[in-house]
Amino acid sequence: MMAAQIFQELPQRRLAPDRISFNALLSACAGASLWTRALELLEQMTSCAVEPGSITRNVVITACENALQWEVVLQLLEPDKPNGAPQSATNLHHSAWWLSKQSPSKISKQRALALAQRAVGKLQDFKVKELVSLLRSFSSMLVSDPTLFGRAAERLVLDTGTTGMLQTQEFANLAWAFASTGSNTQIFPAIQRALVQRGQALVEDGKSVEDDPVARDYAEGMLGVVWSLNYAGLLSEAFLNFATSTLKRLTGSAAQLAESWPRTSCSDVAADAPWVVVESRQAMVLLKPAGWQVDDDDQVLSDDVWSLSTFVSQMLPLRRCPLIGAKPFSRGFLHRLDVPTSGLILVAKSVSSFYDLRLQLASGRLQRDYQALCHGSLSPSRHEVRAAVHWWSDGRSSSSSIGWFGRPSITTYRPGDPGDPGTSGGTLRGRGVALTMRCIRIVTGRKHQIRVHSAHIGHPVVCDGRYSTTATYQLDLNWCPRNFLHRYSLQFCTDGTTMTVSSSLPNDLADALRRGFMKNAEFTMVHQKC
Description:
Belongs to the pseudouridine synthase RluA family. The protein has helices spanning 2-9, 19-31, 35-47, 54-66, 70-77, 89-99, 106-121, 128-140, 146-158, 160-163, 168-181, 187-204, 213-231, 237-251, 308-315, 351-362, 449-456, 470-476, 507-519; strands spanning 275-279, 283-288, 292-293, 306-307, 342-348, 367-375, 384-386, 389-390, 401-402, 410-414, 426-430, 433-442, 485-494, 497-502, 524-527. The protein is α+β, with helices and mostly antiparallel strands. Helix 2 (19-31) runs antiparallel to helix 3, helix 6 packs antiparallel against helix 7 (106-121) and helix 6 (89-99) runs parallel beside helix 8 (128-140).
């Protein structure tokens, strides 16, 4: 590093290192994520009688943040620690954000609660954007200090001039913070008024999400606010109607898409390929087999995983359906499924239908139902699981977990209809082993939600190598090739018609179920009536 070499030559040139030279070297450390070297230099500043400034601390924090050293960042932000930062409103806001990146623990919870109490005393010192970020960080940890959230709501409702500087996504973050923590609801009318005013202005200016980033940010923020209002039980028909009409005008006419066209050849796909279950002018439903990735962004796929977007683009030429290749619009995919999970996938064929269907999803109008075979005898009285799901978004872990920290999540369980082979439900009992087939609906859509919720209540999905014990997984592999989870039903509205699309259990899972019977000949099916 050139900066380090120059720094070492300072004594030879009879020059004393000062804050500027230290900051230059620290900046180089931050760029290279050399967090241990940055901490050493911070200590060296003290020995050289050079007082670290706010810029110095921020650069050291950046070096630690780039290396994902969240615990060290928090120590640097503690005012009573050596080289700790002053406890300003800005630093409190940063502390809350970095604390939300910590692994959930009793210590991190205690820190979060203490931090929330300190923030109350600094409430008037926060900039509005900092305050929104602070509340969002606390809500992601499910910390809902009533005094903090109540006073913050009062300030934000009264300070309408300042809240006008917020971006629409920040309004969505604010709505999510209050909805997920069940806090003061007086903030919601103010958020809705702000979105109505902005939406009307964008429509009057003729903006479009396809070529205007502000309109696109507004559409994304609107979807977030609708989701939060629906989750809180406060979504009115009037506001939903406004959101529907505004998004339609910002996304263009639904008539922009021609009717279905002849398909191109799909020769370069796996033998067990997806197929179209139903198709309309605006959307189609695919059946995704296990082993296929719903690649709606720039993910790099492993060699043993097939790309669903490649399959769709071979069916629908990009020149006729450019949405399929548009990453800002998730290539038209409305939702994901884990690679080892099979089931129905909804794909929009126009920008207008993409946002219309996403609005249905945010408002709870789009229903997704699954079949799962779980370990144990799951009681018919078990109808719901409410448990926060936490996962890392920075690559530290690909598993989700249940704890005091995370996003509120709801999964509902119900028996299937014994007369319907597509949704049969019941319990298999025999030889000291029990397995239960249940129909599952997700109210929220978190990463691995069904799998982690089922494991949380002691009934992991069969052949789930991530959320069951190694011994159980190895035994399951003797008769089941993959996790026994299948999305069998979607209900949504397209072209003015409500559609319910269903899929029977795929062959590999149906065969596994038969093998389970043969391997455990004493098993009997005990149906649970709806």
